[in-house]
Amino acid sequence: MDPLQLLPLLLVVIAAAATALSWGAKKVAEFLWRPVHLRRLLRMQGLEGPRPKFLVGNMDEITRMKETAFHQPMEIGDHNLLQRICPYYLEWSKLYGRTFVFWWGTEPRITVTRPDMIKEILYTKAAHFGKSALQRKGGAVLLGNGLIMANGSDWAHRRAIVCRAFKMDKIKEMVPSMLESTKNLIRRWDAHLELNGGAPCEVDAYRDLAVVTADIIATTAFGSSYSDGIKLFHTLTSIQKLFVQSNKYLWLPGSRLLPTRTNRKIRKLQREMQALLQDLIKARLSSPSLGTDLLALMLSAVEEDPGNKVQSSKFKFTIQQLIEECQTFFFVGHETTLMLVTWAMMLLCLHPEWQDLARKEARQVLQESNRVVNADTLAKLKTVGMIINETLRLYPPAPNLVRAALQDTCVGDLYVPKGTTFWIPILALHQDKHLWGEDAHEFRPQRFSQGVSRACKTYDFLPFSSGPRICVGQSFAIMEAKLILAMILQHYHLGLSPRYKHSPVSSVTLKPGLGMQLMIKRCD
Length: 524
What we know:
Blueprint: H1 7-44, H2 59-70, H3 82-85, H4 87-96, E1 100-104, E2 107-111, H5 115-124, E3 129-130, H6 133-143, H7 152-165, H8 168-172, H9 175-195, E4 201-204, H10 205-222, H11 226-246, H12 261-285, H13 294-299, H14 319-350, H15 352-368, H16 375-379, H17 382-394, E5 401-405, E6 409-411, E7 414-416, E8 421-424, H18 426-430, H19 433-436, H20 452-455, H21 474-491, E9 492-496, E10 504-507, E11 509-512, E12 517-522
Parallel strand pairs: 2-8
Antiparallel strand pairs: 1-2, 3-5, 4-12, 5-8, 6-7, 9-12, 10-11
């Protein structure tokens, strides 16, 4: 063969080798040189922290401290969760001050609790920040590149569309669905009591509320396609359990690509979830009417519209983007309200005087409205609202926030290069005695008697974040939680079961690690 004929092949091989070498050099720089450079840069600005190890960062110390804390029993009624959920924050803030840097694998995380710096990150310079590469890598398992994981112009585009589905007038229309799902729970609990001869009986509120909140999400999101919504919920729940297992090694480069049993299961479930949502969306597009549920509201922005039922709009979604937003709403919407109501019930069991006040208010408001439950009725539940805010303060669904610099920027007098992340310990802010007083670890809903704005400054209370990226479903979650609590308190006296063990864990969200066993008794 003429050597000249081999020249094109040789050039391809050389190009491939050069690309591989370039990629390898880039990764070496990313995992070896960049952390050294960043650490030196941050130390020059006075930022100290624990010494990181190659690739691992401080993960071994974090894991060890969390495991030690988890095996320490907690007293029922002890709401000082920092030692259990973020023991490394307590340890390192004592050594290095409240602004320090630690390493999540190769990702530097600057811990910040100063309200002025938090305001810059979440509001003033919000456009400079987004989700980190590590967050997006982990979040892709559950949420794809949905609103919560998106950055930059992609985030702005998605936010503009999703916000239209969460306007207050749209949320108000969802109250009847929320009410019916809650009534189903009451029927189930009544059946338990009847089987027990009317005597108080034990229920796992965490498990039962998971059914209710999934019910509500499935109905409000998919309406007539409710059964498909429940299938999606079960698939997402399975993925979440596997995600927690695999997330332990997320910081390892290439961990998601390894052919482990967990990764294979995740990929299989993801394919099932994608197929389910794709079929559901296509079926709705080919039906005579799009409907009025959340799916229909977002379908009005889909580009692929073979039936020509969608009005023209500058806001457009692809089918894949819609799938990702359905995943996001399903997972986040379900988890947030589930945890909020579960912890609120526990707190009301520990404080029966507040349980009685909330019950009295719910009965009075419903009596005045002729037992009509709607958004206007729920808005009058001031005491229930105070209880919800205090629950969010002590047990925020997300114990911390992470924001990555999408460009070189400054926060306060600190220069941060692109890729550096800030870690905002929400739990520490919510229980800071300098911000909330000596009773910061106590359940005192009266601190919110005149609303959140009178109880604290904006960046002292961040259960739903703040600024442009504040949770788009905040009003939905609060309204749903108010309704569930008010309906349950009308019907039952709640108490903690002797079998309840106080074991909060941070597993994507802050949840009861061993369930929420309650004793219920029918009200007279």
